[in-house]
């Protein structure tokens, strides 16, 4: 039986990824579904659908689907808690449609495919590519639990295509013969087999490399130019723990991953509110940089943020939903620089932001 799609799978690049074959091989035609209305969903950038006698849902019908096609579609849609139901289309033909479980989502106003493609299409295709890469390896329930981080990793790949640092460095050829995801949950680990161009124009032998696949993050050092002090946060960190460092609780700037659909600036303001209870004024970009380009995809957008750092702004913060336990501290600029110059700052983004602040501090104070 053919399938009727009313939502994001009407976007051919996404449908190609899910089915694993080009659009030219897909039997597809426009169709309508009477008695239903497509609605936006409060929980995410995808549509829901509801029964309404006076409505008509626009969509497409896809026919000639193989058992493998159905299995792939079930796998992808299952992560959104959607299941197949048989319906009658506007032309009287019978088809199946993926409908959400009752009460699964909070339905809102109308949903637009064009708006979704503009705002979410690129990221969603990236996320779908990762989801379908687990087909046959992980269950639908596992994918549902991983999906927030899948989307965040997808957002990082979109950001990477939009960012091009004009360093004037060599741009050689890289031939990737194999890329395997050997671990994936909150983070991921990929192994590569590749060869790359040398500076003399020859290619290296095939080599094996591994990379820790993380997300993009916004990092914020709040600074009060009137009181000439900064706010730092303190929390338990897994890196020092795994390394065997006695200093497991670390002083650092506010930081957090850039969620799908957020700009780095939006993340910077949200994380400062969540972790330190602060509303910041102007964000001053410090830099955009890799944490360690030799072994991780983690990428930082670092800011110094102008804030009102009165004596009563410190306390305990963080989101209970993420089991965060974060303590904030006020520190004078001079004390911060004493920590940096004395080699007592173990956090690279804090060091970067502190030395940027040292360079621009007079200007910021003059404008305060």
TrEMBL record:
Q: Which residues form the Nudix hydrolase domain?
A: 213-353
Q: Which UniProt keywords apply?
A: Hydrolase, Magnesium, Metal-binding
Purpose:
Acts on ADP-mannose and ADP-glucose as well as ADP-ribose. Prevents glycogen biosynthesis. The reaction catalyzed by this enzyme is a limiting step of the gluconeogenic process.
GO terms, biological process: nucleoside phosphate metabolic process; ribose phosphate metabolic process
List the record's Gene Ontology CC terms alphabetically. Answer: cytosol
Please spell out the taxonomic lineage of the organism that makes this protein. Bacteria, Pseudomonadati, Pseudomonadota, Alphaproteobacteria, Rhodobacterales
Listed cofactors: Mg(2+)
EC numbers listed for it are 3.6.1.13
| Keyword set includes Metal-binding | yes
Top EC category: hydrolase
- What species was this sequence derived from? Sulfitobacter sabulilitoris
This chain belongs to which protein, by name?
ADP-ribose pyrophosphatase
Q: Which family does it belong to?
A: Belongs to the Nudix hydrolase family. NudF subfamily.
Q: Which reaction does it catalyse?
A: ADP-D-ribose + H2O = D-ribose 5-phosphate + AMP + 2 H(+)
């Amino acid at each position: 039986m053919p399938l009727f799609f009313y939502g994001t799978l009407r976007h051919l690049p996404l449908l190609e990824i899910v089915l694993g074959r080009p659009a030219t091989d897909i039997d597809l035609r426009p169709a309508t579904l009477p008695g239903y209305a497509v609605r936006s969903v409060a929980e995410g950038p995808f549509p829901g659908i509801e029964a309404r006698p006076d409505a008509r849902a626009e969509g497409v019908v896809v026919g000639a689907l193989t058992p493998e096609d159905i299995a792939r579609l079930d796998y992808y849609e299952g992560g959104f808690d959607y299941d197949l139901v048989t319906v009658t289309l506007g032309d009287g033909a019978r088809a199946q449609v993926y409908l959400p479980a009752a009460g699964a989502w909070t339905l809102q106003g109308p949903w637009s495919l064009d708006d979704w493609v503009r705002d979410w299409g690129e990221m969603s295709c990236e996320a779908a590519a990762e989801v379908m890469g687990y087909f046959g390896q992980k269950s639908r329930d596992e994918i549902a639990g991983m999906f927030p981080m899948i989307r965040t990793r997808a957002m990082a790949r979109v950001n990477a295509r939009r960012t091009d640092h004009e360093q004037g460095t060599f741009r050689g050829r890289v031939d990737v013969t194999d890329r395997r995801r050997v671990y994936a949950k909150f983070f991921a680990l990929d192994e590569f087999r590749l060869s790359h161009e040398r500076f003399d124009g020859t290619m290296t032998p095939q080599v094996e490399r591994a990379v820790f696949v993380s997300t993009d993050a916004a990092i914020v050092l709040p600074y009060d130019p009137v009181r000439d002090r900064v706010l730092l946060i303190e929390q338990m960190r897994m890196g020092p723990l795994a390394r065997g460092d006695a200093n497991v609780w670390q002083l650092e700037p506010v930081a957090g991953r850039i969620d799908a659909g957020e700009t780095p600036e939006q993340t910077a303001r949200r994380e400062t509110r969540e972790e330190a209870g602060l509303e910041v004024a102007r964000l001053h970009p410090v830099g955009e940089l890799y944490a360690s380009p030799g072994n991780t995809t983690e990428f930082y957008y670092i800011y110094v943020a102008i804030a009102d750092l009165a004596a009563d702004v410190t306390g305990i913060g963080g989101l209970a939903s993420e089991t965060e336990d974060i303590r904030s501290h006020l520190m004078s600029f001079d004390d911060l620089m004493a920590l940096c110059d004395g080699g007592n700052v173990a956090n690279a983004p804090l060091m970067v932001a502190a030395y940027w602040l040292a360079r621009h501090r007079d200007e910021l104070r003059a404008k305060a």
